[in-house]
Design brief:
The chain is an all-alpha fold. The chain folds into two domains: about 55 residues, Orthogonal Bundle (Arc Repressor Mutant, subunit A); about 140 residues, Orthogonal Bundle (Tetracycline Repressor, domain 2), CATH 1.10.357.10. About 80% of the residues lie in helices and about 0% in strands. It is built from ten helices and no strands. Helix 1 packs across helix 2 and helix 8 packs across helix 9. The protein is elongated.
């Protein structure tokens, strides 16, 4: 692993566990075992490091998030809930300390500079696009008039809100209730599509 990668991984861990504002360059240097000259050579300032982290999340969404969650899951709707289940596992493994890294940064950085805000938005867009791809793959199992983009964004909102409440209350039941309500909504949509298909026949 090269120095840049070590620094990025250290920053990703620290921004997640401590927050961006509470993480110092000294923290990153200690965690990565890099020297300051090496760090400032690749990341001239702390915001450059944040941009590098957000780019790493953006470019790594398949390998870091989607592929592990979807391993062995072929059904497109099941994939949506398998992805959500991966967040639940993270909550359980951390006793509800886990927070979605992008969601946490978006909440912490109230007035991010345009490059940072755009990368936060791009991370959300890629997550939403992956979920929308699952919904599109479901085809006629969903009603023809469903706004797939809106539904994908709603799923992201349910996940982020469920994670935030579970962290706040230190209770995964808050996440579970959000996802259960979402599943009921999706089940109602699939039932509606089935009724419509039967009526046509």
């Amino acid at each position: 692993m090269d120095t840049r990668q070590r620094i990025l991984l250290a920053a990703m861990e620290l921004f997640w566990s401590k927050g961006y504002g509470s993480t110092s360059i000294a923290d990153v240097l200690a965690r990565s075992q890099a020297n300051s000259g090496s760090l400032y050579h690749v990341f001239p300032g702390k915001q450059d490091l944040l941009i590098g982290v957000l780019e790493a999340y953006r470019d790594g969404i398949d390998d870091m998030l989607l592929a592990p969650a979807w391993r062995g899951v072929a059904d497109p709707i099941a994939r949506v809930f398998a992805l959500l289940a991966s967040y639940r596992r993270a909550l359980l493994e951390t006793e509800c300390v886990y927070g979605c890294p992008i969601g946490s940064l978006a909440l912490e950085l109230h007035e991010p500079d345009p490059p940072v805000r755009e990368l936060l938005a791009e991370n959300f867009r890629r997550w939403t696009a992956a979920v929308r791809g699952c919904l599109e793959a479901a085809g006629p199992r969903l009603p023809a008039d469903v706004d797939l983009q809106g539904l994908a964004e709603f799923i992201l909102t349910a996940m982020e809100g469920g994670v935030m409440q579970a962290r706040t209350h230190r209770d995964v039941a808050y996440f579970d209730r959000s996802i259960a309500a979402l599943r009921r909504h999706v089940d109602l949509l699939t039932s509606e599509a089935e009724r419509a298909a039967t009526a046509v026949v």
